[in-house]
Every structure is written in C-alpha cells, then in structure tokens.
Amino acid sequence: MVDQSASIDIASLVKRHGATLAVDHVSLTVQRGEFFSLLGPSGAGKTSVLRMIAGFETPDEGTIRIDGRSMEAVPPNRRPVNLVFQSYALFPHMTVAQNVAFGPTMQGAPRADITSRVRLALDMVKLSSKEERLPSQLSGGEQQRVALARALVNRPSVLLLDEPLSALDQQLRQEMQVELKSIQARAACTFVCVTHHQEEALTMSDRVAVMHQGRVLQVGSPQDLYEAPGSAFVARFIGVSNELRGIVRRIDGERAIVHSPECVGEIQIVLPLHLAIQVGSPVTVLIRPERLRLSTAVQGLSGEQSLAASVDKVLYSGSDRRYLVRLGEHVVWNVRVPNDESGRHGLVPGDHLSVRWQISDAVVLSE
Amino acid sequence: MNSSPPAGRAESSRPVASWWLLGPGLLWMGLLFVVPLSLVLVISFAERGTYGGIVWSFSLTNYLDLLHPLYARILGQSILLAAVTTVLCLIMGFPLAYYIARTTPRRQGILLLLVMIPFWTNFLVRTYAWMFILRTEGLLNTLLLKLGVIATPIELLYSNTAVVIGLVYGYLPFMVLPLYVALEQVDRTLVEAAWDLYATRWAILWRIIVPLARPGIMAGCLLVFIPSLGAFLTPDLLGGARSMMVGNLIQHEFLVARDWPLGAAISCLLMLFVMGMMRWLLHATTSHSRQEDAS
Q1: Suppose B139 and one of A56, A303, B27, B133 were both cysteines; which one would form an S-S bond, judging by CB atoms 3.0 to 4.6 Å apart?
Q2: pLDDT at position B15, please?
Q3: Sequence-ordered list of residues with C-beta below 8 angstroms from that of B129, at least 6 positions apart, any chain
C-alpha cells in the first residue's frame, strides 16, 4: 500500500545509538508540496530522522520511501533530496556561483543549462549581484540564501532543512520565516524542516510533528497542536499553558465536574469524546494564557468557569501585560491581558480576584 | 573584512615589546645562518689554492666550471630523484594522513606517535639498517629467495632505487604531518554536502578535499623535496658511486677534493635553484586559484 500523493513515507523507523533508541518506531507521511516540520527539544531524534532521509545514516529498522521508491541502500548522491545544513556547509574555495553550480555539474548537466539554472536559483534567493563573491565575503543571512539556492537548483523532490534559521539573529530570523515560506511556494517543492524553535515551526509549517525522546507525540496543523494538544508535553512545548490536575467527581451528560486538591473550588469541563473518562479518573485541564480573563466581579458571564486567585506578579511586555496569579500553594497561572482595557491596569500583587474562562476553551487530558 | 584593533596607547607599546622578544631569535639566525651563508657566497667567488686553500680574489671561474655537462647531469639526476621521492611520499602519505585525520582521537594519538617514532633513533643508524635489508645477501633478498619469488638475488643496494627507498623512508613523516594538519581542518560537513549534491567519492576527493588541503600538500612537498635534493648521507650509503647527488658532490668538493670555492659555488647554485622553484610554485598556485575564481 503506497500512498501516491505522499512525498515521503516513513514506516516504523528505528535508529539506535548504542543502547539508547535515538529514533523509536517513527512513522510519518509527508504530502507532496507540504511544508512539514519536525519539532522537538535537542536529543528528540529529529535530526537523526532528517539524516536518515538524506541518507547519511542507515536505519536499524523500518523503511523510508521517497516518491514511492524505497531508499534502502541508496546512497545520498542518488537520492532525490537535498539538504540545507545547519552550518550551511558552503565550499569555501568556490564562489557563490560555483557553489550553486556544484550539484548540476556533478549530475552532468550541459554547461549552458547549468548557467541558466544557477542564475534562476540565485534570482530566487535575491543574490544575483553576489555570484562572484566567496562565501567568506557574505553575511550570515546571505550564506543561508546561497545554501538554499545550492540545494534548490537541483530541483529536488524534497528539500531538507536542518535548523535553517538557528544561526541568524532575531530580526533576520523572522524575515527569513516569511521568505522561506514564499520560496517554498515558488519552488513548488516539499520542505521538511527540523527545528527546536516552536514559533518557527508554527509560522512556517503546514503540518508539524512534535518529537520527544525518539518518538512522535503528535502530528497536526499548527492550529491543532496549539488548540488541541494531545499531551501535556505538547501543550507545554508549544506555547505557554496553564495546567490544573484533578479528579472527576460527577459526570452529567457530556459535562463533568472536576475537583482539584491543588486549589479551592470545583470546575466544569466538557468531556472529550475520544477519552474514556469515568468518575474518579485523574485528568489534567489546560488553558492558554490568552483565553483567561481576570475579574474582581462576583458574578461571571454565562458559560464561564472561575477559580479564586491572587495576583503574584505583573509583567509588562508592551503589547500586553502578563499576570502571574496564584490559585493554590503550588499552582501559578499565566494570564495574558491585551494592553487596551484600562480597567485592568490597577491590579497589583496581593489583589484577590477570580480567573475566568469559557468552558469550551479548556483542553482536557486523561493522565 | 577583518576589523583592525583600535589604535590606542596600550597598542603602541606592543611592537616595542615584541622586538625585544625577537632579539634572541634574530641573534641566533644572524650568527649561525646569515654569517655562514654570506661566507659561502663570498668563497664561491674566490679561487682554489694549489694545495687546497682559498685564494681571496674575485673570479667567476667556479661558476663557469659548473657549465660542464657532468655537473648538469648530477643536478638533473638529483632533481629527478628528489621529485620521484616527493611524488611517492605524497601518494603514500595522503591516504595515511587522511585516515589519521578521520579516525578517533585516541587512535590519532597512537598513529601520530608511530609516524614520529623513527626520529627517536639516529638517521645514520637507520640508513645502515636499510643497507642490511637491501644487500645482495640481505634480509629482502633472502626472504624473496626463500619464498621462491626470485631465483637469483636482485641487486638493490647501490642503485637509484635504493636511494629513493631510503629518501622516501626518511622523509615520509615530513609529508604526513603537514598533510594531517591540513586534512584534519577540512570540515566533515563539506564532504557530506558534496555527497548530498550528487558527487561521487572520487569527485569529493578531487573537488573538495584536495583543493582545501592544498596548503598542506604544498608544505609537505616542499619539506620532502628540498631536503631530498640536498641529501648526501642516503645517496652516499645506499647509492654508492653510481648514484651521486648534488649533496655528495658538494661534500666531495669540500672534504675530498679540497676545492672549497667550487663546493661553495655548487651550494649557491642549489640554493638559487630552490628559491627559483619556490617562487614559481607560489606564483603558479596563486594564479591558478585566481583563474578558478574568475571562471
């Protein structure tokens, strides 16, 4: 069974480094033309997966198919993929144009063809004026563009990017996120990007696979991952999340009442259909900081849940204010309030209030 | 591109300090290198006395004598043997240096030690050892005869082959060490990048590794070629009368023929040749890379 629209099809891939499983039965399907990211902390195994797709490492188990063709025993120089290295790995003794021409030259393309393709690739990354420079004469951002052009000039079926923006400064990184996305659209090519930077993965990708300790925890669109994380790890890794652990006390149709020993009061949740939750089940409730509301009023709006809290710290960050509010001895939540409501500004540490949220904004996970 | 350090009061005192530190080295070089070399140059224009002394007069006789075909033949033979030695050292040293540069740090230490171990013993003694190996009834012939590879002993000692064997043996470490340093600095990800960009192993070697290791290759070749060209001990012991090199000729003129001015003239000619060759090599490689940049 081979999915025809799949660009990359990975089935139960395993890679061992000594006794540890660097990659633990990873299965993934990347669609043609997709911008796909492997996101995870360092040591999650994402780079190993990328290097196995490129062919630099051999899987201990499992298969990799690219465009339906098995990559078993196919060396890197015969794979329809090109890698943009984290360090760019530009050839220091060759000019920009020679670097970009390297791939087509090795493939034995005709000279005239190479010249026009190199020009096209350099146009795409807006570096046509620097083709006679040596890599050492370029800035970090320009070197990155050369590395991109050197890979894209080969018209690979899949472009692999290893932490592509990690060496750039903050400003340039944000520009390149947009740039990479538009280059991908122009090149009409599948991108597989490895990153440990969640914001990068969310802004650029069509779909993201979150990896941890060699396993894929969840695959989904950035919106899915942010709004419906499947595990506490995913919720914590992608954005900031507030957590409350508790026990289900009562079940009433599709809603349930959760009591937490960590704070005062009970909350209502919507029971997720895919989880088998019964009375007595331990659950974790997650709510994003921007979905919370702070209120000193006694009565909440309809459909709102609330818990009593006190202000711990107020952090001013320009566009919004972050409040750290204490719900219990060990529970401190992050609340983000846009900097436009004048009424909230008077809150100071020590104030007592209630934290409120819409019942549907809470994500429920079973332990 | 490189920003120069800002000029300041602290900076201005530095050159003075470094001049003082250069003092001992300059003194050493001045007394033991420049003075003797100048003497050799002066003597090369003097004349030989009837009983071997030096007659202090200015003449070009020694240099005109060198136009004799015999000297040209010896110089040509020396260049040939030194060139063959250099090429063999490069061919043998490159894979070895590459392996050492790419292996684990632990193994690197051991292998580098093994490369340098021969220096722990006197060069003369090691060359004598080669005489025992290469002699007609020596180790190599005995072994080959016993194994039935040859029927009659081959005459290895006292030939150009023996000289080249001795020179390669003696100067191989001088090729391996600079090559190792250069190859160790070649970034492994560049090799991976080339591999990813459809290069075969052969293309990776010639287009990435060799160009990046060029300074090391040049250094290694010079370190082998120059001393091989001036060698006299190895050709003297392993080459005998048939394989005279420039080094032997100089030694002969100074010690046997007692013709110091002629010996000095040959020395000067040799130095001039080496300097000219280095200039040419430097020019050739820089213009080569410039041409590469332009294409």
Answers
A1: B133
A2: 58
A3: none
Is A51 part of any domain? yes
- Subunit contact A77:B198, Cβ cutoff 8 A: yes
The minimum CA-CA distance between B44 and chain A, rounded to whole Å, is 45
The neighbour count for residue B79, using CB atoms within 10 Å, is: 17
Render pLDDT for A270-286 as a digit per residue (tens, 0 to 9). 887 777 788 888 889 99
> Is residue A285 within a helix (H) or strand (E), and if so which, with residue range?
strand A282-287
Q: How distant is the Cα of A78 from the closest Cα of chain B, in angstroms?
A: 6
The pLDDT confidence band at residue B10, using thresholds 50, 70 and 90, is: very low
Do the chains contact at B193 and A134, CB–CB below 8 Å? no
Q: What sign results for the dihedral spanned by CA atoms B118, B126, B151, B243? A: positive
Give pLDDT, residue A317: 80
Q: Residue A1: inside a domain, yes or no?
A: no
CATH code, A319: 2.40.50.100
Give Cα A113 distance to the centre of its chain. Answer: 38
Residue A16, beta-bridge partner list: A21
Tokens of B108: 């690197």
Instruction: Convert the pLDDT of each residue in B218-239 to its tens digit.
Output: 999 999 999 999 998 899 889 8
Q: Give me the CATH topology for the region B72-294.
A: MetI-like fold (1.10.3720)
Locate B204 and state its tokens.
């990776």
Which one of A83, A98, A136 has the shortest CB-CB distance to B196? A83
A171 and A29 in one domain? yes
Asked if A107 lies within 8 A of B198 by C-beta distance, the reply is: yes
Q: Predicted ipTM?
A: 0.85
Q: Please give the backbone phi and psi of residue A298, each rounded to the nearest 5 degrees, phi first.
A: -75, -45
CA dist., res. A298 & res. B287, Å (int): 84
**φ, ψ for residue A219, nearest 5 deg:** -120, 130
Cα separations in angstroms, A318 against A97, A238, A335, A346, A354: 44, 22, 15, 16, 24
Q: Based on the fold, state whether residues A217 and A247 are members of the same structural domain.
A: no
The pTM is what? 0.81
Same domain, A264 and A182: no
CA A37 to chain centre: 6
Confidence of residue B112 (pLDDT cuts 50, 70, 90): very high
In this prediction, what percent of chain A has a pLDDT beyond 90?
A: 53
Chain A hits for B190, CB-CB cut-off 8 Å, are 89, 91-92
* Number of domains comprising chain A: 2
Residues A320-345 pLDDT 10s? 888 899 988 888 999 988 877 655 56
Q: What local confidence, expressed as pLDDT, does residue A343 receive?
A: 52
Taking CB atoms and an 8 Å cutoff, what residues of chain B touch A83? 192-193, 196
Tell me the residue range of the domain where A46 lies. 6-237
